[in-house]
Description:
Elements: H1 4-22, E1 37-39, H2 44-58, H3 73-87, H4 103-108, H5 115-120, H6 128-138, E2 156-158, H7 162-165
Antiparallel strand pairs: 1-2
The site of heme C has 21 residues, from helix 2, helix 3 and helix 4.
Amino acid sequence: MIPRGRVLWSxxxxxxxxxxxxxxxxxxxxxxxxxxxxxxxxxxxxxALVVRxxxxxxxxxxxxxxxxxxxxxxxxxxxxVVGGRQALNFSTWNKPQANAGDVASAxxxxxxxxxxxALLHPRATFxxxxxxALIRALAPLSGPTGDQARPPLGAVIRVATxxxxxxxxx
Length: 170
Ligand code: HEC
């Protein structure tokens, strides 16, 4: 039999530790970078599918959920967004995108969007028809990779109004 006082002290210790985690600076920076130069999407629908499935981690238009403020979940989200934007950023399509060649295959293989993300974001769950459309939307973006990843001239569009980047229904 564990003495009740000790249990209460343990719970208190956990609460204090949890609160201390919240004070750490990492994971609190939720400013989205300015600037938006997107690929030339085949259609509005094509873009909308990519917004649904990819923009939270691969664009400058991350929607930060309330739990992105709660450590240690906030650290995981921060890591996803920073790592995701580094790997591929649909908002900086005027810059070389080393992984552009893999956008369609990453979805085809089921690697992207990550399954844990789809679980938490129902809008990132696609019907078979939507999945086909999403892959089709991404396929034209699969240009050369590595140092050659600059998009061909004229293959970028500038979206001036950030409002246009977050269509209703997100
Ligand atoms: C929850 C965040 C998140 C979402 C949503 C997401 N990605 Fe990613 N993605 C990442 C991270 C983090 C990396 C880099 C590290 C890695 O490879 O796991 C990455 C890497 C990639 C890469 C680089 C090659 C590779 O497979 O590692 C491609 C291509 C990619 N993502 C495509 C997509 C596409 C297309 C979508 C939407 C259908 C998408 N991602 C949705 C987080 C995400």
